[in-house]
Amino acid sequence: MPDGQENQENTNVPTVEDVFEESLLTNKSVNKRTNQAPLMPQNKFIRKKRKRIEWTQEELDELEEGMKKFGTNWTLILSMSNGPLNHRTNVQLKDKARNEKRRREREGIPLGVFQKATG
Questions:
Q1: DSSP conformational letter for 43
Q2: Is the pLDDT of residue 27 over 60?
Q3: How crowded is residue 79: how many other Cβ atoms within 10 Å of its Cβ?
Q4: CA pseudo-torsion sign 74, 80, 85, 87
Q5: DSSP 8-state code for residue 117
Q6: Secondary structure of 66-114 in HEC code, one letter for each residue
Q7: How many Cα atoms within 13 Å fall on the side-chain side of residue 5?
Q8: Average pLDDT in the 5-10 region?
Q9: Residue of 85, 81, 116 whose CA lies nearest to 101
């Protein structure tokens, strides 16, 4: 083969730089033996952590009233709340009810409506 044809065939073979650049774009490891970690973050679904806000007695009373009316329907309790629970989520209501039940059991306080909470 003449030298010109040999060089043309070799230009179709990707170089190490080409493979490395492509791996960065596709977030794949270049070589598993070298244990090179990709430079892009693996977790595409990073959650924003909320700042912890203490529960007030007013919120606790509102949660208790809501549980008396609607049981453990957290979404309905939240939607019918007229103020104190507006910055809480339905999951936070569920967790608070469960934790309040545990606290009352531990301290020997009557459970009341929190008996309906799971946990």
A1: -
A2: no
A3: 12
A4: positive
A5: S
A6: HHHHHCCCHHHHHHHCCCCCCCCCHHHHHHHHHHHHHHHHHHCCCCHHH
A7: 2
A8: 53
A9: 116
